[in-house]
Amino acid sequence: MRLLDRYLLRELLIPLGYCLSGFLIFWISSDLFTMLDDFQEKKLLFRDILEYYLVTSPEFLVLVLPVALLLALLYSLTNHARHHELTAIRTAGVSLWRLCRPYLAVGFAFTIVHFALNELWVPKSVEAAERILNRRTMKQTSPDKRNVVRNLGFRNSRDDRTWHIGTYHLKTHEMENVIVEWKSLDGARHELYAQRGMRIDKVWTFSNALELAFAPGTATLTNRNQTNLLPIPEFSETPEQIRSEIKISNRSKAVRNAELPIVEIFNYMRFHPRLSRPDEHWLYTQLHGRLAAPWTCLVVVLIAIPFAVGSGRRNVFVGVASSISICFIYFVLLRLGLALGSGGYVPPWLAAWFPNVSFGLAGLWLTARVR
How far is Cα 259 from Cα 243, in angstroms, rounded to an integer? Predict the structure, then answer.
């Protein structure tokens, strides 16, 4: 790494650290005032509160990473411009694109970090925070109702199989009062009634089970099999796919807040290869939105560079205010596009990617025009 790159990175990372720290302190302070009564009511200790904010911080970081990067980049570049450092660097034969290479590298690195946080940690933070909030008030002997789903019913359209489960345990993947209906390749209809079901060596195994087989297209019983233990390897549904089915079918508050990781969207699509039009618009908009969101970190770099570099010729706040205004328009356009895509008014890919592509190209064009 050249000396110039190290210098530019150091001058960027210091204000970036201040921005992230400031946002984090402000968020914790404001949220603490709001949640203080709840913390006291739930009898949380100081270490519980620290753990609570630790597990919820990824969701906050996903929101502020692009904004913090924007402000830090605006500050560092305008500071360089005010002291004519950029002019000196370019006079020495360094092009603007070469000068911006470390900033683009930071934007790309933040894109990867944003994607990892959004897919690996944020979806788990809601449930983890809920467990911490209730750990002091829940009786140790009482079952955790959040991990039990009652009267679960879903259809695996891919394999033409319908499940009805009286009680499903999310942690252990155990089922109670199970009814499964499906058709075999020869068209025969099958019904399974079981007291319990569990996942053993990646095979669904049912206890106290009764399997009935009916002739194709009729109600004539052709086979009756009652046994204490019945493994059925052809049941391809995995616990992860069932969990995705539960979350997406209910579209609960947790789904709306943390949205859906890409793996759960694909799990649901494996169950439902032929989606209804509303579900198709909503799911594909979610999918493209998840893919496009991390690239916001790179887009804000492309937007900030032309305004911050040129701000040395005018009041420093003009470039900052102009860039922030454009980014505000970008985020408004992004949310509006996702809403239109979910409603089926525009194609999902266009709704999710249009803000990134349009503002990214605009940033490249404006940077190319900087003299």
Answer: 14
Q: How far apart are CA 207 and CA 229, in angstroms?
A: 5
Distances (CA, A) of 356 to 12, 247, 262: 23, 28, 19
Q: In 3D, which of 261, 265, 282 has the Cα closest to residue 348?
A: 282
Q: Is the pTM of the predicted complex or chain greater than 0.70? A: yes
Size of the chain, expressed as the number of residues it contains: 371
At residue 142's C-alpha, the angle toward residues 59 and 165, to 5°, is 75
pLDDT in tens, 214-267: 998 888 888 899 999 999 999 989 998 898 888 887 654 444 444 678 988 888
Q: Of 331, 354, 328, which Cα lies nearest the Cα of 341?
A: 354
Element (H, E) at 288: helix 277-292
Is 304:323 a contact under the CB 8 Å cutoff?
A: yes
Is pLDDT above 50 for 271?
A: yes
Between 312 and 214, name the one with better pLDDT. Answer: 214
Spell out the domain ranges in the chain: 3-137+291-369, 160-232
Among residues 182, 183, 124, 175, the alpha carbon closest in space to that of 152 is found at 175
